[in-house]
Amino acid sequence: MGMTHTLYTLFRPPTPELQILCWSRQLKPIRLNEYSALRFLSNALTAMRIAQAPDCAPIDQLSTSYSSIYSLCLGSLYLHGVLPNGKEGHHALAIQLGSELLHLTPMERDKILNACVYLQLMVGDFPEEVDEVVAKDMLRLGQHTLRQARKAFPDWFD
Fold first, then answer.
1. Which one, of 86, 89, 4, 61, lies nearest residue 38 by Cα?
2. Per the structure, how many domains does the chain have?
3. Which positions ≥6 away from 24 have C-beta within 8 Å?
4. Which of 39, 115, 140, 148 is 20 to 30 Å from the Cα of 106, by its Cα?
5. DSSP assignment string, 44-112
6. Quick check: 4 pLDDT over 60?
7. In degrees, to the nearest 5, what angle opens at C-alpha 85 toward C-alphas 80 and 88?
8. Which H or E run includes 119?
9. What's 105's DSSP letter?
């Protein structure tokens, strides 16, 4: 990773919607740090690499694909100088806002939100088998989200 970009090229001003959510304290403004910005991307890329491994079990494929998408959503908020405040529902908030910044469709966003709920249920005492079709679908969505992130924030990938 060359130091060709600076924080100033990575930073995007918060959208009016993000500013309103800061005022209502659902988001908090943060100071952009290039290392942290790159960590979000690195975590997403690592998770996608794991999810794409041929021996990845469906539950792991689903959860690592979801982790990758979540990291990209959080990272896209981070590039706008904001993050969720960590209160109840912050995962869903990050996905809703991040999927808008990444230009995902409402249907794609809803699939990610459903995966979030599903994975929380899976942590219970009796985890079910995850359908391979569901896992593969989330993997495809993860790959798509990565492509969208590259389009939306090309300098993040330089």
1. 4
2. 1
3. none
4. 39
5. HHHHHHHHTSTT--HHHHHHHHHHHHHHHHHHHHHTTTEEE-SSTTHHHHHHHHHHHHTT--HHHHHHH
6. no
7. 130
8. helix 106-122
9. -
Per the rule left: phi > 0, alpha: psi between -120 and 50, beta: everything else, 33 is: beta
- Cα separation, 79 vs 18, whole angstroms: 12
Nearest partner of 48 among 149, 144, 114, 139, judged by Cα: 139
pLDDT tens string 86-115: 888 899 999 999 999 999 999 999 999 999
Report the CATH number that the domain containing residue 50 is assigned in CATH: 1.20.120.330
Backbone angles phi, psi at 24, to 5 degrees: -85, 5
- Joined together, the tokens standing for residue 49 give 């690499």
Q: 44 lies in which domain range?
A: 32-156
- SS3 assignment, position 28: strand
For residue range 39-56, what is the model confidence (pLDDT) as tens digits?
Answer: 999 999 999 999 999 999
